[in-house]
Design brief:
Layout: H1 2-11, H2 15-25, E1 30-32, H3 35-48, H4 69-80, E2 85-86, E3 93-95, H5 100-108, H6 112-129
Antiparallel strand pairs: 1-3, 2-3
Helix pairs in contact: 2-4, 2-5, 2-6, 3-6
């Protein structure tokens, strides 16, 4: 029973892993660390793609730029765990290449249909976010 529970928990995909898979699909070595632009880009992506509810961020649209506290929390956790690392001295880019394998493992947790969607989203994110 404990082994079944462990297997079930390991097979679940978290929202952190969704963001990791999205970063993996951008297919760049580095991306700029500009949260306001990233929030806006992910907000726009959510309106163009059929994303499962558990991976949709809630955005506050009362300001000039859409803001998601949940997305901010995910980015904070990924930075703190160094999955998304920023280099000295400017800390203005995430170094995706350093943790490409870890990001790829998160991407592999998704089924083929969702992987295709994430790839398309990554391509659009790369184009709109301006890596």
């Amino acid at each position: 029973m404990l082994a079944d529970l462990k297997k079930e928990l390991e097979s679940r995909v978290t929202i952190d892993e969704y963001v990791m898979a999205l970063m993996y699909s951008i297919d760049e070595d580095t991306i700029k660390k500009q949260p306001s632009d990233l929030f806006k880009a992910i907000f726009n992506l959510q309106s163009h793609y059929d994303i499962p509810k558990q991976f949709r961020f809630i955005f506050d649209k009362s300001s000039i730029i859409p803001y998601s506290e949940d997305l901010a929390d995910v980015l904070f956790r990924l930075e703190t765990s160094t999955v998304l690392s920023t280099g000295n001295p400017s800390y203005d880019h995430y170094n995706i290449q350093l943790k490409k394998e870890v990001l790829g493992e998160a991407f592999q947790k998704f089924d083929n249909v969702m992987q295709d969607t994430i790839r398309q989203m990554g391509k659009e994110l790369r184009e709109t976010y301006g890596m």
